[in-house]
Amino acid sequence: MSDKKKSKHKTSKQTHRPKLEVQGTLEITRSGIGYVLIADKTGDVLVRPGDFNTALHGDTVTVKVVKENLTSKRKEGRITSVVLRKQTEFVGTIQLGTNYAFFVPDTDKPMPDLYIPFDKLHGAKHKDKVVAKLIKWDKDDKKPVGEVLSLMEATSDSDAAMKQILAEAGFPLSFPSEVMQAALALPNEIDAGEIKLRKDCRDVLTFTIDPVDAKDFDDAISVRKLKSGYEIGVHIADVSHYVHPDSILDQEAYKRATSVYLPDRVNPMLPERISNELCSLRPHEDKCTFSAIFKISAKGEVKDYWLGKTLIHSKHRFTYEDVQQIIETKEGLYNSEILLLNKFAQQFRQQRFQAGAINFSSQEVRFELNEQGVPIGILIKESKEAHQLVEEFMLLANRTVAEAVAKVEVSGKPVPFAYRIHDKPDEKKLLPFIEYARKYGHRFDASTPEKIARSFNTMLAEVKGKPEQQVLEQLGIRTMAKAAYTTKNIGHYGLAFEYYCHFTSPIRRYPDVLVHRVLQSILLGKPNMDKQMEEKCKHSSERERAAMDCERSSNKYKQVEFMHSRLGENYEGVISGVAAFGFWVETIEHKCEGLVTVASLSDYDEFRHVEADFSLVGRRSGRSFKMGDKVWIKVVAASLDKRQLDYIWLPNGNSEPLTAPNKGQKAKTKSKNKEPKKHIK
Question: Which of 230, 306, 642, 652 gets the most CB atoms within 10 Å of its CB?
């Protein structure tokens, strides 16, 4: 064999392998090239547009690897089947011809138009904005077939944007008719036989505490004085009584896995017939609940607990504002019970922090909307004692249920269970943060996870009210791992709990439904050894992250919508992030974040990015922009399509810039590169 032939033969061996099929998630770039991200991290598979085989962006697919370079490990393949579609509902426009109708989706991801049969138009006309559903796409069909679900008002851009955010994340915008029929078929009355199977708590003082605009009251608290101490009950809506495993209601709830809360709407996990009526713990109605009832001493020590199914009758519906007023004034309906609960809650809270829970403070924005859903004001929500009262008793119930289940084994094996876990901080993120905190005089003991938590709490207490509070809290949160659901319990680092689960919100979270079912199977003496539990946990975690992305995107849209009418106005803000191409500023008054580009600063100096210091520094002037610095900005652009705000820096404070730069107003921004804020619970 000649050298030339030998070389050719060798190359062929290096670039080809036997064909194999793997499963992963398809991501399609704007250029049209696709990559299947393999779950086991063995390497992505490149897929060219002609090999998608009906798959769309975000779908879970099976891909056959047809070529692999053994040196670079680069793989190419073709998709053989779609395992699970991420998105089946889309927002877009109808194009109507004489003999055809097509739906053109509003998306920046390459995908074909949907062919709409005339009997599936449901009144839609040419150029109407609609929500359409993909109903059929066989392998040999050139075009997928769709159906119009609903018409959208042409004037409601905000409504269209909210629906598109939900649809792109794979959340259905409506319930199928068969799901609605199943919900409507559920009985209003509680069967007498069912009442006999439950602990009757209807004569115990019980009330709910929720946001003023809430409709799904999924938890209630009861209080009863005992001869020695108190009986405190945490009562949770018994969704599992109505939603049975593998039923059509259960399948729909699992697919969604969570309710999604946007500024102007809730996209519920369950039909309103269940979430707002049958299961909502409304006052003066008998309700089926799953309860954790605690015996607590006068000193606030938990002496005993009982877990099981109950029947309750709420006496009153409180808002957080009602309870906060009672706590502050010590007057009002059931004030002695509220004050007792608050005393216990604050004790539990202090005990958690002493045990190593991390005391990050949190602020959330709430939008004041007009009748058209346009924001006319932004309010800052802070966690007060009323919120902490509810939170601490929910944490107690969640932890108690997890501990009780963890003790149970079947043939030496633990019962598969949806634990809520939170890992210790990522060392790669933690060490740079420790170095940065040292510049402000804060020392960290990183020898053990417990000492890291203690160091965090010491720092957070010391920075309260100081200029550096926001930057250190923000960067500290970024060192934290993401909480998730899994059967492999490692504890919850942020809460300092060895065992933890979600038991208290089954109306809006599917893992809570799973927890109720497992707990009930154990209480009946027949533990459910569900072999699919880990897969269900992974799906729930993925849907939770998707919901958080929706909430973040919708908040950003509303902030841009709010600032759109304030172009040219000046605001004081705090630098909330820094990158090589600019820095983000969050306005103090409204918490609206926008980007000041390096290009817009070019008339003042040339700035370089100092990554370790989270800053931009001028090469000539030495002027620096660091995370946490207060600055004045002018709002110069508000793009609803990109959900992006552009600011320019005002060097003279609340005034015009010395030299009005115009480069930055048109500069391309990369806001998507900034890490989102994370919540550890």
Answer: 230
